[in-house]
Amino acid sequence: MTTAMQVILADRVLAVVRAPVVPDPLALADALAASGIRALELTFTTPGVLDCLRAAAASSTAVVGLGTVVTGHQARAAIDSGAQFLVTPGVRAEVAAVANQRGIPVVMGAFTPTEVLAALDLGAAAVKIFPARTLGPGYFKDLLGPFPGVSLIPSGGVNAGNAAEFLAQGAVAVTAGTDVVPPASVAAGEWAEISSRAVSFVRSMSGKVYS
Known about the structure:
Layout: H1 4-11, E1 13-16, H2 25-34, E2 39-43, H3 49-56, E3 63-67, H4 72-80, E4 86-87, H5 93-102, E5 106-110, H6 113-121, E6 126-129, H7 138-143, E7 152-154, H8 163-168, E8 174-176, H9 183-187, H10 191-204
Parallel strand pairs: 1-2, 1-8, 2-3, 4-5, 5-6, 6-7
Helix pairs in contact: 2-3, 2-10, 4-5
């Protein structure tokens, strides 16, 4: 069985959706997966997200997780609703405890070297560096000096113009946010447009220029 982290590490990208409404979560998950982004992170900032998660988890081609998880209660609710991975905005011990107990990987948010260490000590499967735009791709190369082999994922400010550079500097994967899943497009159910955006983003990750 392919795990969520195996998919994220293979594709080197996951889509992060922050939208006021997701009218058809399954269609969204399938559209992204068919376009090369098989990992989808819904977030607790979307009202009724647990219902969305249950619908999206029915996809046979996507792995679906839940982000902005900050409490143990949220972690349990997410896993019970079908989350295959969890993402936190910062170091959250109680989320890690639930995830580890349930055998679900957690991508834990951090920014400083101290926070990276804390996330690793809590058993994070990968560390999300947020906000990545603040120090840019070079920061990842710097962090990998004292933390060789650590799985780092940039979030916040990643787009088709810089995704390849983050990967070149040592990130194991990148997040695709509004570049691929603009809230308005998600709310309007514009799956064809989102699919096209996903294809373009995936192509940009190679650093090549496509006409």
